Each structure stands twice: as C-alpha cells, then as structure tokens.
C-alpha cells in the first residue's frame, strides 16, 4: 500500500484484488445437453425451411423442366381464354342491353346510384352551411391536440421506457 | 444458409469449442444476473449464436472475446426491465459514501485478507456479490470483471457518468460490509484451519 493512497483508491485496489481471486463458475452439466437439443432442433427447422423454400428462393430458372413447361402452358391458355372471352363480350353486350329484363336491372342500378348520390350530398350541404372560420378553427384545434398528444407520448416513452442504446439502434 | 444444414460444422468440434468456453460464458451471465437458471438460458442463447457464426469463430483468436461480449449484451438486455429501478434508486438516494465509510470499508477488506484463506474468501465474495442489489452489482461487475471503463458502463446502462461512479463506490462499500459480517463469522474457522 502506498502512503499517498486515499481511501477511495485503497478500497478500489482491495476490491479488485479480492474479486480477481474468484475463479470461473462451473457451467451446469445440463447446458451441454440443452445446447445439443437446441442445435438439433434448429437444424431440423432449417432443413425443413430449406426444402420448402428452395423452389421459391431459387427462382424460375431452378424449377423442374415439367413445372416450367406447365406454367408456360397455363399462362398461354389463360391469355387465349381471356382474349376469346373479351371478343365474345364485345359482340354480345349491345344486344344484352336492349333485352327487357337486363334493361330493367340496369335501370334499377341507375336509381340506386342516384339515391346514394343524394344521400352523400347531405353532409356536403351541411359542411357548406358551416362558416369557414369555424371549420378552420376546428381543424387547427384538432391539429394542436394531435401534436400535444404526440409530444406527451414521446416524453412519456423517452422518460419511462427508452434507453440510450435503444435510441442509438 | 444455416451452417448445420450445409454440413460444414462438425458437431464434435463445436462441442469441444463449447466446453472450452462454457464456464466463462456462464460465469459472465451469472455474475450479472445473479441467477443460475437465467444465466444458463443466456449461455444457451450465446452458444446458439456462436453456432450460427461458427465458420468465422472456429479459428478466430477473438472467439472468447466475442462470446464474452455477446453474453454481457444478452445479460444486460435481460436486465433491461430493471434499469429504470436502478435510476430511481440512484436519484432517490444520491450522494457518495463519506471518507470515514470508505476507510472503514477498506479496513474490512484488509481484515478479510488477514483472517481468511483463499478458498474461504472466494466463497464469501461470491455470496456477497449475489447479495448486492442489481443497481450496484451490475456496474461493479462490468467495471471489475469485464474491465469496462466508467464511460462505457454509463453509456451501456443509460445512466450518467457520475451515477455510475457513485453506484460502483457504494457497491464496494456494501460489499465490504457484507464481507465484514461474513468474514467475522468465518474467521474462527479459518484460524482453526490454519492451526
């Protein structure tokens, strides 16, 4: 011990000395068994994931030839069916619209649309009836309340929960 | 790709790697958490991460340091929920121990060296360390065992530098008091053992 050593330094030195005498603690025997089980479990999961995602991750070029041919055939067939369907619709649509049963349904649809538009016009009329100053004031008040609430939550979070390392990350 | 699925990891090699470091990893976690079950969970997680990085670690001279850093990081994350409580403690009970208290604490530790043998001291120190509250034990362990500077401890725990210094100082005084009580109990046994 040096004579110039103050109590603080002396305590630190003694504590370092007494703590450095401590040997490593022996890990429990169960740790190795648990590790082996965990590794086997993870390896099994990884193998399962790999086999199921091989085709997905490998892309079209890595697919089996039959799968690629089937997909191309399906795509071509779909395109042909859609084109034929559009052509058929284009020839039949004008005739359908003139049929009495279809025409009645179309009229009902138009009536329903007009009714919906009339209902939607009510709030618009109401809003137009409110003085613009009131609307502006309400919007500003809402924005201020939102900002105040946001600030309150941010302060609460940083005070009660966030740590510097979380913030850094 | 998972290393196990690639077939590149020899399980015997990894087991040998684990055996070489498991005491160090477990000790690091156990000293910080003061709980053997939690330390075992943390050690398991550390070695699972090591397994995922084994290609890099198997021949690296820094593997031990890597494992220690991960164990420390995981143990501190585990303790995260209590950190606010540490801050509260240091803010509710601010101030450093008096010079007299420091003198007395140093004298207690000196007495311990005088009246106990090495094995007894080890047992007493382990017990005393476990008795310390987390807000004192964790910075003390980081400083004395992990050799982290005060500034790094403050950053890691999210407290001020002054608070870290105070907490560690108070931890040393508390440790000395615990060692004093237990050391006096152990002293007759030590004397008997030596004679």
Descriptive account of the structure:
The complex is a heterodimer of chains A (about 170) and B (about 200). Chain A is about 85% helix and about 0% strand. By secondary structure, chain A is mainly α. Mean pLDDT of chain A is about 80; it is low at about 165-169. Chain B is about 85% helix and about 0% strand. The longest helix of chain B is centred in the C-terminal third of the chain and has 34 residues, at about 160-195. Chain B folds into two domains: about 5-80, Rna Polymerase Sigma Factor, Chain: A (Orthogonal Bundle), CATH 1.10.1740; about 80-195, Arc Repressor Mutant, subunit A. Chain B is globular. Residues about 185-195 of chain B have low confidence and may be disordered. With about 200 residues, chain B is an all-alpha fold. Chain B has helices at about 5, 10-35, 35-50, 55, 65-80, 80-90, 100-115, 120-130, 135-145, 150-155, 160-195.
Largest sheet of chain A: none
Beta-strand proportion of chain A: under 5%
The total number of structural domains of chain B is 2
Counting copies of identical and different chains, the oligomeric state is: heterodimer
The proportion of residues forming helix of chain B, as a percent range, comes to over 70%
Give the topology, please:
The complex is a heterodimer of chains A (169) and B (195).
Chain A: H1 7-20, H2 30-58, H3 65-98, H4 100-129, H5 132-160, H6 164-168
Chain B: H1 3-6, H2 11-33, H3 36-52, H4 54-57, H5 63-78, H6 80-92, H7 99-115, H8 118-131, H9 134-144, H10 150-157, H11 161-194
């Amino acid at each position: 011990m040096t004579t110039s050593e103050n109590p603080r330094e002396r305590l630190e030195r003694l504590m370092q000395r007494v703590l450095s005498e401590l040997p490593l603690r022996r890990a429990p025997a169960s740790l190795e068994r648990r590790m082996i089980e965990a590794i086997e479990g993870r390896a099994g999961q990884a193998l399962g994931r790999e086999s199921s995602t091989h085709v997905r991750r490998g892309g079209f070029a890595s697919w089996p030839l039959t799968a690629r041919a089937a997909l191309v055939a399906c795509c071509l067939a779909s395109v042909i069916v859609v084109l034929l369907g559009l052509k058929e619709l284009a020839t039949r649509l004008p005739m359908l619209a003139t049929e009495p049963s279809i025409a009645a349904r179309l009229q009902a649809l138009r009536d329903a649309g007009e009714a919906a538009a009339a209902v939607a016009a009510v709030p618009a009329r109401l809003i137009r009836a409110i003085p613009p100053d009131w609307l502006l004031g309400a919007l500003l008040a809402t924005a201020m309340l939102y900002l105040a609430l946001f600030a309150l939550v941010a302060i609460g979070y940083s005070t009660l929960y966030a740590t510097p390392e979380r913030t850094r990350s | 790709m998972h290393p196990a699925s690639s077939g590149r990891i020899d399980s015997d090699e990894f087991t040998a790697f684990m055996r070489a470091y498991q005491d160090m990893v477990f000790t690091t976690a156990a000293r910080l958490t003061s709980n053997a079950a939690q330390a075992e969970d943390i050690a398991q997680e550390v070695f699972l991460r090591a397994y995922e990085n084994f290609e890099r670690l198997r021949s690296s001279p820094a593997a031990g340091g890597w494992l220690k850093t991960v164990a420390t990081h995981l143990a501190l994350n585990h303790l995260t929920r209590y950190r606010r409580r540490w801050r509260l403690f240091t803010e509710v009970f601010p101030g450093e121990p008096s010079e007299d208290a420091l003198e007395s604490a140093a004298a207690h530790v000196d007495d311990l060296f005088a009246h106990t043998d090495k094995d007894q001291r080890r047992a007493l120190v382990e017990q005393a360390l476990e008795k310390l509250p987390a807000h004192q034990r964790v910075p003390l362990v980081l400083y004395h065992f992990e050799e982290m500077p005060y500034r790094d401890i403050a950053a890691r725990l999210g407290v001020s530098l002054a608070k870290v210094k105070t907490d560690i100082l108070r931890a040393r005084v508390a440790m000395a008091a615990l060692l004093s009580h237990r050391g006096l109990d152990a002293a007759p046994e030590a004397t008997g053992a030596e004679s």
